[in-house]
Amino acid sequence: MNYAELKTYTLNFGPQHPAAHGVLRLILVLSGEVVQYADPHIGLLHRGTEKLIEEKTFLQAVPYFDRLDYVSVMAQEHAYSMAVEKLLGLKMPQRSSYIRVLFCEITRILNHLLAVTTHAPDVGALTPFPRGFEEREKLMEFYERVSGARLHANYIRPGGVAFDLPIGLLDDIFNFITSFGSRLDEFEELLTNNRIWKQRLVDVGIVSLEDAPNWGFSGVMLRGSGLARDLRIDFGGYEVYDKLQFEIPVGQHGDCYDRYLIRLAEMRQSIRIIEQCLNEMPDGVVKVEDFKIVPPSRAVMKYSMEALIHHFKLFSEGFNVPIGEVYSVVEAPKGELGVFSSSIGMNKPYRCHIKAPGFLHLQGLDFMVRGHMIADVVTVIGTQDIVSGEIDR
Amino acid sequence: MINNVGNLSNNIFEFSGFEFLQLVNLKIFDCITYFEDEYLLQIFGSNDNLFEIVEFLQLDEVVNAQQLLDIFASPSIYLTGRIDLNYILLSNNERTWVKVLAELQNFSIADLYSSSIWLEREVWDLYGIFFIANPDLRRILTDYGFEGYPLRKDFPTSGYYEIRYDESKKLIISEPVEFTQESRVFNFTSPWEEKI
Fold this sequence. Notes:
The complex is a heterodimer of chains A (about 400) and B (about 200).
Chain A: H1 3-6, E1 9-13, E2 25-31, E3 34-41, H2 49-53, H3 62-66, H4 73-88, H5 94-123, H6 128-147, E4 156-157, E5 160-161, H7 169-191, H8 195-201, H9 211-214, H10 220-224, H11 256-280, H12 298-301, H13 305-316, E6 324-332, E7 335-343, E8 351-355, H14 357-363, H15 365-369, H16 374-383, H17 388-392
Antiparallel strand pairs in A: 1-2, 2-3, 4-5, 6-7, 7-8
Chain B: E1 2-7, E2 29-35, E3 40-45, H1 50-59, E4 67-75, E5 83-90, E6 95-101, E7 105-107, H2 116-127, E8 130-132, E9 161-166, E10 171-176
Parallel strand pairs in B: 3-6, 7-8
Antiparallel strand pairs in B: 1-2, 2-3, 4-5, 5-6, 9-10
């Protein structure tokens, strides 16, 4: 018997680690430096979101979705609001759809900026990190002007959007996107043609065209392998994406380098979408004009009795949603985010299930890192865009 | 919104684009609905036939469900006390939603889709629904040594045990839950209001 072949070493890539995004405990079974088997232990950030949502009304449940994937905030609110609107059978006014798309694309830029600029320091390139976060600060300033909070906005609610855009915001967004293209060029200059970056990323974590659908990948992970699937255009799209023109970047090799390039290209396409939204932004109301579901404006509430009653009923009891179940999906920046919501006619969701894209991506970590070395595990975790908040809920 | 509802027990149905189903031994489904504008195919089935249903959806050329995106359990909205198991599949043409009643033991579809392993683990951990032949059925979201199935309706939101660090014993101990403040319950529906 050859005992040397059987010897493996089990390493705990512990929950507290700067490269384990959020809390992620990885048990790595190594043979030398080569990974034989990786077993992610999740649930260290499990906050019981789904159980807590069952105790809250439909409007009070929106902030739970902010905190799921705390990097791309408004995408989850969007998924939940769409689910509740389907249960209610509402149709969104045009202006609210355009504002939602605008902020979803800002969210996409926020997310990809964080993904790329935290992936880089994990691999070893420390410079992009503060540059990318400065851009995120500028975008969070837009979040704050429109909703009041920099990160957990609670802005996209069932029935439309919480408040109308303040004066001057669209001009500032336009100034941002005219200069953002050059910022992206600076990142590309640092990383894309860098020898070390390429050596660390090319041919690492390859996902083949058969493996990606089998493991339930979605979003950038799926497009990196060559499957051109994007929920913004598939099945007719949602909101006003069918009226906007943009391209979907698709990779060929399915390695980390392709996914990095796709994220940069998606940021550029997001700039394009934002510009179209700014040009086409229609006038009108930002919420559905049904005060049984959406609160009236505070100014009107101060002098009108009916508005006061509506305001009181909505913020104490909430609106009642007809019996039904719905599953709504959204192209969140990380992948396909699904929200299942069911109602038994009460003012609270009876069951709310959230399917996070990172959950299935992390499941695929095992087959992606087999045969690679420990440093590549860090690269693959970064490319999968893992955020503990959405995986553990 | 609903295109055509098919009821298999009477064998009278005709779907635009789904005539192929007439060729199959349809006794494995209970009811199929196709929502045209949402590209959603909803299938109700019985637990015994679940594996055949999902296998058919995967192998068939027209449906060709390449991805299993989600498995989740939801208590029945008709308040029967039973729990439904839902499977969400995706293909190029439509999204398929298969709904079966959960039994004490269910068959895992890990042979068909690898993505089902963790999804079934989550359903097992949070609901206590067991899957035979899942290669790796252990807890995934709850704490090591947690007892109980949190998402069931009879499990309280506050839980039963809480964990704290005891300075005198220098250990993390778990004791029964003690709250200084009652959790707020938002039950303001008036008794004379009709439920929709």
